[in-house]
Amino acid sequence: MKTSTFEVGELISTLSAAGVHRQIAMLSGVHHVDVNYVAGSATVHFDEAKTSLQEIRQRIIDCGYHCRGELVPAHVCEPTDHKMTADAHKGHMAHGGSKGHAPKEMEPGSDPHAGHSVKSAQPMSDMTHDMGHAPGMSMQDMANDMRNRFFIALLFAIPVFLYSPMGKMFGDFATPFDLNRKVFLFIVATGAIAYPGWPFFIAAWRAARNRVVNMATLILLSVGTGYVFSVGATFLYEGEVFYEAAAVLLVFILLGHWLEMRARAGASDAIRALMDLAPPMTTVLRAGLETEVATSEVLTGETVIIKPGDKLPVDGEIIEGNSEVDESMLTGESMPVKKVVGDAVIGATINKSGSFRYKATKVGADTALAQIVKLVQEAQNSKAPGQLLADQASQWLVLAAIAIGLLTFGVWFWVLDQPLLFALTLTITVFVIACPDALGLATPMAIMVGTGLGAMNGILFKNAAALENATKLTVIVFDKTGTLTLGQPDVVEMVTAQDVTEAQLLATAAGVEKFSEHPLALAVLKRLGTSQAEVATGFTNIDGQGARAMIDGEKVLLGNLKLMESEDIPLQALVTEAFRLQGGGRTVVYVARGGKLIGLIAIADAVRPTSMATIAKLQERGVKVAMISGDNQATADRIGKELGIDIVLADVLPGQKASKLKELQEQGHKVGMVGDGINDAPALTQADVGFAIGAGTDVAMESAQVILMKSDPYDVVGAIELSRATLHKMHQNLWWAVGYNLIAFPLAAGVFYPFTLSPEIAALSMSGSSAVVAINALLLKRTKLAGIKRVRPQIIPTAGAQPSLGVSL
Predict the structure, then answer these.
(1) CA–CA distances in Å: residue 215 to residues 446, 458, 684, 797
(2) What is the pTM of this model?
């Protein structure tokens, strides 16, 4: 089973996505389809043995939409349009790329086409000649195009209004060249409608071809009815014209769609920033020469040369040199990470200081960046449970608008015997005031913004259901080791004998432990820091007990109780303290010097700095916190008490974790599990929502629904806060969309006559409704949430390459 995300360009209505969905789903071998109107993309799960990328792409084109192929990061593939490819090649040569070199043979088993977009099967002009927008437009380009059409329509609509009966209040103007007023209005109104409204007319045609009705259908009916009726009254029969209604109506529609598309472009900020993180060019070693090539041309096994300030193009392993690398744009880790020979490096990260060379191990679609982008795309294109109902309601709303519009005309014209123009005006008002797009946008806009904001903070939701389910959790279960704790021993307490200071105890212990590589010894040395250790000689390791050495002619012993007893060291002075420390779950290191016990060093798994704040914040939000551990009850209770944990589950073997979660679920709890994603895989799968913590760039794990790229438990708070805020926006949008349509239909149909709405006001209301939903979702970016940084895409300059768009975390 393969999953790919395709471009679906020029989607202009939420219900347009339904037609594309239906047509792709009819292909043999397609198991599941999610079409995202906001992102302009479709995620398809299909069997490669039964259908292909090319067939899916062609089906999207057959629906009347633009599709260059898969949506992948900039470093994965070359442009698919032949002219674009030629231009890119010229640009590559201009950057000093190797001319005419033979490609290096790839390693066995590698795929020469991995991650590349589907190639265009026909000239771009042939497949886009009938499109409302130019082919291959980005969402921002479409917003700009809609803006231009709005101003053109406004320019023509002003004279239409001034020469209409409504414009007479501003003066009685003579028509140019003494043209008949109706003919002049026809000419100017045609200019206001034909070009500016073309995308909607094309969208309505596509909808009809795909056997759906959508927002464009209603726009065509409303604008078209007013325009066609007026044309008839101009050339075929006597009657009033209302070109101004059709023209001004379209102006307001274009204004609303311009604002909506700007909001849609804003919702895609995160995914666009991620897709453009990798540098466009890089330097590799080919035939012994340093050669600049496009990042998409780097092959597995090639040597990549990195200098200070460079962005890394692909994933790999350092083979020469060392440096510090800033990985914050992908993993969220704020501090640069030291890298030496043998260490793995990640594409799209930034080299800070030294120079090094590394072997490319993952290129194209296999890189960590490509995998992260794919995960975010799939999450944004997935549908929350409530969205399915909203999509169906949107479809029925269009049909209801058409039916109510026709009924309105029949009642007012034939039953109530009102003038034709009045009945027709109300009918057009009903057609145009319905806003299925507000319903269709309510959920996907919020999901786009929420998952994008999460990705920019190192929190990856695998799908919309995970985001929604995270809001329902009543208990969060943390695995202790490596999650709430650092998974490393640390000195937590020291007890000294009379006339001995902690500094003396630590200096004596460190003098012996500096010869040892035992984890407990490393904890003592870490606590010593930059202080001076005493000089020890004659170090001897005693298996299972500890170590001995000589300091200033005195024998020093470090170890457990068994060592002290074998050396006849009197313990009476500190025995009570030793029992207390052991009862608290700490490992006790006895330190003796000159035949006397001089102190105790208590060592335990260090608690992460953010663990306490994480637990306090979750409890503040009404979520209980549990800790699961294989430690004995005393050790687990100590950490549980220290952190204020509600439920402590101790003496739990790895294979028993899933059953413990099931017990909590049987008690009626919605359970989230936080673990490492590998050892805790069964428990993460059992949980209602599994959080894989410390995943780094390993985002492909199947067991978790939420990937936390950092090893910070506070990101769980961020995930919960973000999911709740996103769901809140979804509910706000849905209530607004439903409430608007419930009020709009009676007003438009004249139920409250003599109070009625003009088509122009209805158009403004309809467009405004969609824009309100889109802008409200974007406000999520400005909401203050615990554990979430409000970040914006920014330009990150890279040495030796053009600046590329990146995200600062």
Answers:
(1) 20, 37, 42, 42
(2) 0.78
Dump pLDDT digits (tens) for 691-720: 998 765 566 567 889 999 888 999 999 999
Note whether 74 and 370 are within 8 A (CB).
no
What distance in Å separates the CA atoms of residue 153 and residue 342, rounded to the nearest whole number?
Answer: 63
Q: Which residues contact 80 (CB under 8 A, 6 or more apart)?
A: 68, 69, 117, 118, 119, 120
Beta bridge partners of 796: 804
Catalytic residue among 34, 391, 479, 688: 479
Secondary structure E strands in 497-577: 537-542, 546-551, 554-559
16-25 vs 198-209: helix crossing angle, rounded to 10:
30
CB atoms within 10 A of CB 322: 14
Torsion of CA 96, 89, 295, 112, to 10 degrees: -130
Q: What is the mean pLDDT of each run of 10 residues along the chain (809 residues)?
A: 88 81 93 89 93 93 86 61 40 37 37 36 38 57 90 94 76 80 93 94 88 86 90 86 87 87 78 82 94 93 95 96 86 79 93 94 90 87 80 85 94 92 90 83 89 89 93 96 85 92 94 89 88 92 92 95 93 90 86 95 89 96 94 83 94 90 96 85 93 72 85 94 95 92 91 88 84 90 83 40 31
Map tokens 């009924």 to a residue.
407
Q: Is 130 a catalytic residue?
A: no
For residue 785, the cross-strand partners are 788
β-pairing, 485-496 vs 537-542, is: unpaired
Q: Say which residues have a Cβ less than 8 Å from residue 18's Cβ, sequence separation at least 6.
A: 35, 212, 214, 391, 395
Three-state DSSP state, 132: coil
Distance of CA 703 to the CA centre of its chain: 19
Sheet holding 459-461, edge to edge: 459-461, 706-708, 689-693, 671-675, 475-479, 624-628, 647-649
Collapsing DSSP to helix, strand or coil, 358 comes out as: strand
Number of residues that this document lists for the chain: 809
Element (H, E) at 427: helix 420-433
Q: Would you say 499 and 697 are in contact if contact means Cβ atoms under 8 Å apart?
A: no
Q: Tell me the three state secondary structure of residue 192.
A: helix
**With contact defined as beta carbons under 8 Å apart, do 280 and 801 qualify?**
yes
Among the listed residues 142, 266, 221, 203, the one whose alpha carbon sits nearest the alpha carbon of residue 18:
203
User: What is the CB-side half-sphere exposure of residue 620 using CA atoms within 13 A?
Assistant: 10
Every domain of the chain and the residues it spans = 2-77+115-136
Candidates 772, 763, 582; CA nearest to 219 is 763
> 730, 776, 770: which is closest to 14 by C-alpha?
770
Name residue, tokens 């995914």. 271
Number of H helices, E strands in the chain: 26, 27
Q: Which long-range contacts (CB under 8 A, 24 or more apart) does 578-581 make?
A: 581/493, 581/495
Find out if CATH 3.90.1300.10 is the number for domain 2-77+115-136.
Answer: no
Angstrom distance (rounded) from CA 668 to CA 658 = 16
